């Protein structure tokens, strides 16, 4: 018998990613305003290694596989973009049936 | 993303000054001239393997990746290799630009991609794009020649200890002279055979014999070595480039060594060693002797798998110097040749010899 799972809501994806970004990239700058549409790339928030770590986080947290062609500014350029992209990916993976969000530690 | 053009060089220089603090060139004009030499005047022109620039929305050069083609041979057949160097991205464009530059390079038409002075950031980026690390080539060796002065120089930190070291120089010199005469790791006896001046033509002619057992080796027979050695001689970070051809007692070519050394002594850095298996000890002994005679306290180099046994047998220490050798190829046999120690790939084959 398999565990019942649901795809995360877009707002949940955005909130969890925001928490991750704050904890890992902005811990020295707690006053940094990080709005949903604020750019993450090219603004000093996330550099090229940060992109690798962000992709690893998204794959791990939302149980999805991100391929190289999907690593674009359109998909990862802001929290809102990430929310849309991940939400769309989760639903493309069988309407979320195989997606089981993991609790952040 | 587009190929580097000659008119981009001033912008690349400006970008480099923004991104890197250290330069061996003392003016922007000299750096631009050097970039032109390295990326446009090299002897391995290949229209499909050119350096890359990233132009932002306003047409400014905001990213750069230097690419130098390097013809190699694998089991006698030509191999198209390319070396990546000087990845730089304007601070305000960091994020995906470096990744796009590197990805464009790694998906190019070359059989083998190399980079041998990569830092940890470069390594992670490279690996995330499917590349790997040659761990054996990411190790360094050091052979101490004057143990007292070498140790003193390593541990003398701060003005007080440095003053003490200066005062103790005569004592250290006496101890080192004694160590060179006593039996043991620091003995400096005169090896058999002789050394003589080394030139590019001899190297090109002899390499196939000396590296004969290596499946992968550089292509020096195309006349490129004269240019390459002239460029390598411009590097001043570790002193002047020295080299010698080693002949055995019968007068046969045993191999050669190339290394950098400062006139005041200190640590020498090996650029290339070449020898047959049976003559490695002889070439190393001549290297130790030559470096010792020039006043060096120690000599170091990157681990070349073929020399590991002999280096270890002669008291070398092995460790990491912080640089990674990165490799990428769609051809598994090329990767296996490198990581399995079946390749002649010295610091002269990567980007280590460059001096921006």
Return the string of H and E elements of chain B. EHHEEEHEHEEHHHEHEHEEEHEHEEH
Q: Which structural class best describes the helix and strand composition of chain A?
A: mainly alpha
Measured as a percent range, the helix fraction of chain B is 25-40%
Overall structural domain count of chain A: 1
Largest sheet of chain B: 8 strands, mixed
In terms of quaternary structure, the protein is: heterodimer
CATH uppermost class of chain A: Mainly Alpha
Which spans of chain B of ≥5 residues are poorly predicted at pLDDT below 50? none
What is the H-and-E element order of chain A? HHHH
CATH topology of the largest domain in chain B: Aminopeptidase
Number of helices of chain A: 4
* CATH architecture name of chain A: Orthogonal Bundle
Cα-based radius of gyration of chain A, to the nearest Å: 14 Å
Kindly, what is the distance between the CA atoms of the first and last residues of chain A, rounded to a whole number of angstroms? 27 Å
Helix content of chain A: 40-55%
**First-to-last CA distance of chain B:** 23 Å
What can you tell me about this protein's structure?
The complex is a heterodimer of chains A (105) and B (356). Chain A has 105 residues and is mostly helical. Chain A has helices spanning 10-25, 48-61, 73-76, 79-92. Chain A has a single domain (10-92), classed as Non-ribosomal Peptide Synthetase Peptidyl Carrier Protein, Chain A, CATH 1.10.1200. The longest helix of chain A has 16 residues, at 10-25. Chain B is of the alpha+beta class and 356 residues long. Chain B folds into three domains: 2-138, Aminopeptidase; 140-145 and 188-319, 3-Layer(aba) Sandwich (Aminopeptidase), CATH 3.40.630; 147-185, no CATH class. Helices cover 34% and strands 27% of the residues of chain B. In chain B, the strands form two sheets. In chain B, strands 1, 2, 3, 4, 5, 6, 9 and 15 form an eight-stranded mixed sheet that branches. Chain B has a seven-stranded mixed sheet with strand order 8-10-11-12-13-7-14, sandwiched between helices. In chain B, helix 1 crosses helix 2 (28-40) and helix 5 (147-155) crosses helix 7 (169-181). Chain B is globular. The A-B interface holds A 40-44, 46-52, 68, 71-73, 76 and B 89, 91-99, 103, 121, 124-125, 128-129.
């Amino acid at each position: 018998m398999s565990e019942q799972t649901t795809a995360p809501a877009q707002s949940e994806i955005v909130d969890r990613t925001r928490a991750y970004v704050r904890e890992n990239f902005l811990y020295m700058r707690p006053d940094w305003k990080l709005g949903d549409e604020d750019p993450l790339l090219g603004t000093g928030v996330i550099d090229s290694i940060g992109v690798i770590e962000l992709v690893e986080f998204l794959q791990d947290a939302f149980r999805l596989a991100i391929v190289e062609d999907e690593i674009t500014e359109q998909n990862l350029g802001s929290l809102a973009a990430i929310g849309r992209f991940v939400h769309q990916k989760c639903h493309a993976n069988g309407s979320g049936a195989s997606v089981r969000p993991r609790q952040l530690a | 993303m587009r190929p580097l053009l000659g008119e981009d060089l001033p912008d690349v220089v400006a970008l480099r000054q923004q991104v890197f603090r250290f330069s061996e060139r003392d003016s922007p004009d000299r750096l631009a001239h050097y970039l032109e030499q390295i990326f446009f005047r090299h002897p391995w022109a290949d229209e499909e393997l050119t350096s890359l620039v990233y132009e932002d929305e306003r047409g400014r050069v905001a990213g750069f990746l230097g690419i130098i083609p390097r013809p190699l041979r694998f089991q006698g057949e030509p191999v198209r290799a390319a070396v990546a160097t000087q990845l730089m991205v304007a601070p305000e464009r960091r994020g995906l630009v470096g990744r796009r530059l590197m990805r464009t390079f790694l998906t190019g038409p070359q059989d083998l991609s190399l980079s041998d002075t990569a830092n940890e950031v470069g390594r992670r980026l490279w690996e995330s794009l499917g590349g790997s690390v040659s761990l054996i080539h990411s190790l360094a060796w050091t052979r101490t020649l004057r143990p007292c002065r070498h140790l003193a120089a390593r541990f003398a930190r701060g003005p007080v200890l440095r003053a003490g070291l200066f005062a103790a120089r005569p004592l250290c010199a006496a101890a080192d002279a004694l160590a060179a005469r006593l039996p043991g790791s620091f003995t400096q006896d005169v090896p058999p055979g002789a050394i003589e001046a080394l030139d590019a033509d001899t190297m090109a002619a002899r390499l196939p014999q000396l590296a004969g057992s290596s499946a992968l080796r550089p292509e020096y027979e195309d006349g490129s070595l004269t240019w390459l050695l002239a460029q390598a001689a411009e590097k001043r970070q570790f002193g002047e480039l020295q080299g010698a051809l080693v002949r055995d007692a019968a007068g046969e070519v045993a191999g050669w060594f190339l290394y950098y050394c400062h006139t005041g002594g200190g640590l020498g850095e090996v650029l290339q060693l070449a020898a047959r298996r049976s003559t490695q000890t002889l070439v190393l002994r001549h290297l130790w002797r030559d470096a010792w005679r020039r006043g060096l306290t120690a000599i170091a180099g990157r681990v070349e798998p073929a020399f590991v046994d002999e280096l270890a047998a002669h008291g070398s220490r092995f460790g990491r110097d912080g640089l990674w050798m990165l490799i990428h190829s769609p051809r598994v046999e090329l990767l296996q040749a490198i990581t399995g120690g079946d390749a002649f790939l010295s610091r002269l084959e990567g980007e280590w010899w460059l001096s921006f």
